[in-house]
Amino acid sequence: MAQLNTKATLSDISLRPFKESDLEDYMILMSDDKVSQFCRWNTMCKEEAFNELIYAICTHPWYRAICVKDMPIGYILVKQGEGNDRCRGEIGYVLGSAYWGQGIITHAVKMVISSIFSELQGLERLEALIDVENLRSQRVVDKIGFIREGVLRKYWIHKGRTRDMVIYSLLNSDSTVHG
């Protein structure tokens, strides 16, 4: 990630599964304090990042690297519920801070939405849970057409503080999914 020019065109953006050879780029992302500000994880050492990449990410059913010219600069994932919750999934995304403000995440989320409802059997609802202070991420889902449903007060503990989260949703039947 550090070797690439941080100006990207949307045609250079692709999504693909992570590979073991992505460890160095993944490490750069996972050690960026600006990136981890609103994330569930803390900065990782190389061994922790390797274990996360190999045992959690590479085996996850829908976890993709966001790439510029095949170089990972972030990630996007969808976690589908199980059993009676199979109709809904949660989307999450992270982008290296050097790439913020270029529309890359918005483009990547649109790429996911264009196919995720047909890829994951039974998925009808996609949710995004976003920290109330993470206005950039809220703008992403607003632009795409997610519906802001409300604030989940004192929803989770993040780095020692109880946090409020905004919940957004997008349904398979929403016009932005098909139009």
Task: Write up what this structure looks like.
- This protein has a single domain (10-178), classed as 3-Layer(aba) Sandwich (Aminopeptidase).
- The chain is built from six helices and seven strands, in the order βαααβββαβαββα.
- Strands 1-2-3-4-5-7-6 form a seven-stranded mixed sheet, with helices on both faces.
- 27% of the residues are buried.
- With 179 residues, it is an alpha+beta fold.
Brief overview, please?
The protein is built from six helices and seven strands; from the N terminus they run βαααβββαβαββα.
Indicate the proportion of strand residues: 25-35%
Task: Please provide the count of β strands.
Answer: 7
Q: Please mark out the parts with pLDDT under 50 across 5 or more consecutive residues, or reply none.
A: none
CATH topology: Aminopeptidase
Percent of residues in helices comes to 25-40%
Q: Which structural class fits the helix and strand makeup?
A: alpha+beta
Named at the architecture level, the CATH assignment is 3-Layer(aba) Sandwich
Question: Can you summarize the main beta sheet?
Answer: 7 strands, mixed
CATH class category name: Alpha Beta
Radius of gyration, taken over Cα atoms and rounded to an integer in Å: 16 Å
Overall pLDDT score: 87
Number of domains: 1
Cross-sheet strand order for the largest sheet: 1-2-3-4-5-7-6
Shape, principal axes of CA atoms: globular
Strand and helix order: EHHHEEEHEHEEH
The total of helices stands at 6
- Please give the alpha-carbon distance between the first and last residues: 33 Å
CATH superfamily: Gcn5-related N-acetyltransferase (GNAT)
